[in-house]
Here is the input.
Amino acid sequence: MNVEELFRRYLEQRREMGESELVLDTLTVDEVLRIVGAHGKRAVAPARPAVGGDWRRALIEADAAVPAPRPAAPQADAPRRSAVPLASSSPLAPLAPAARLSDLAPPGLVVGAGEAELFGGPIGRAATLGEIAEMVRTCTRCPLYATAINPVPGEGSATAQLMCIGEAPGATEDETGRPFVGQAGKLLTDILRAINLSREEVFIANVMKHRPPGNRNPTPDEITACSPYLVRQVELIRPKVILALGTFAAQTLLDTKLAIGKLRGAMHWYHGTPLIATYHPAALLRNPGWKKPTWEDVKLVRRILDSVAA
Here is the structure.
């Protein structure tokens, strides 16, 4: 396969994910597709190319003419995006705190207000995470409790500055009653370690507290029934930032149908808390090329934490 065709497939994949711009550049996917079609020169592709490889190098090796990127919209002190892989063992470089959170990323969606928004009833009156965990253990608000082995209310620090929120428990989580265990959980632990955080320092949870049978998507009624638990957890913990892991979690928390490629890279707000969306660790295991954009997202999380602490 020649480089032009390889790169074209990569761009089509990115566009299917809802992305219109490439990492580290402001050229749109359609513009680069036109560039490749008009100027690309056939060349022999590497035997085992990485999907998330350096697209500029691919164009250069194909002897394609790459025009200068269009100037991006001005953003005060916007952080430069890095291509450091998550697997890097080098320590995270110190990040200079920003004057305002709005300096760190483009504005995104807003869900809820900054004030406390209790749902009322027992869940709204829960005073501790332990009370919520006990409510989840005995919950019958939706049918999922009847098919699940164990509830998975979440775990971590009650004073966590970061909350990591996924979709729903999987088979291993259902068996153990713990969120994000197994290979995806190990990768999440590595991601947190890369920004100088341990699992014990954060709070890890899911939108859904019981596993849907066969890992199917939760129904709207199930989401409505379970959401008050998560909102109350956010209210009690009062994290500095939320990291939404995966398409379902991001779309559910932000009440949107936008693709994860459209949601990542911006600063959204969930009931008064900054929210950053990124790919689910399980998706990174299937698509290693998504590790670089995920690394950019978690560095943004680190910048927010540093800025708030400054």
